[in-house]
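Handoff note, outgoing to incoming analyst
You'll be picking up this chain. Sequence as last confirmed:
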Amino acid sequence: MKPARASATARLVSAARGVGVSADWRDPMAHELSSGKLAQRVVSFGRKTRWIEAARFVLRASSLGLVDHNTLRMLLVDRALQGWLRGGLRQVVVLGAGLDSRAWRMAELSQADVFEVDHPDTQAFKRRQVSPLSPHARQVVFVPVDFEQDDLVVSLAAAGPDQEQPTAWLCEGVLAYLPPVVSERLFSQIAALSAVGSQLVLSYVTPPSGSGVASKAVAALLVRQLGERARGFVSRESMHERLTAAGLTPLEDRGWKEWQERFPGYAPLPNVFKERLVIASKKLPQTP
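Most recent structure output, in case you need it:
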């Protein structure tokens, strides 16, 4: 990562969400977090013309699922967050926020405080991009953290969230790049910072197996070309065990096929970027 510049992965993921799977299913703020010609190209995908739809199809197909995967993942996390906000949660922590645009595009966040946690170089770039924009969130607090070097508990405590209030935790596309020991520590830190009633949604990648070996190998190779290295594969069973050991209760866990079923009318294309989304909650300890 170059100093004071967002990672290549963060920029590519944001652009993919800006292209989207249709003019309606996309990130309408992605161009604001891009710059130069990329921003001009991304914003055009909000138009509903024959030529734009043809270009969208080409990018969806040629990206081997990068566009579709990141777009549907974003929309599913949006739905989870919207439900929690309707239920009264007023604190949101976005782990590995990258170029996440929710604080600037979701009107439901008007009564919530958003804490964005990420590498300081990515945050420096993002802060420049959003400086002319007004967020929908009540406030946005940037919390610089390197997950492998820094203590999330210390950094977030200094940022000011109320640890007595339930928190919505979002963690998209992060765990695949963290060593298992760092992920386990992260779960414990989330649990330690969470009041009862807190909610977590996170994506993770299961180990390659069977017919998925080739596709995940291609996905890992493509990601590595961006300067990242996939190293945090974890099975569904192990993920649930780690969450439970940290004090978090898994509630649901959906894979790519189930993601598609949540979007009637979605026309799928081949996808090598297959993650799972798990939702967990901080509940009262069970009494014997």
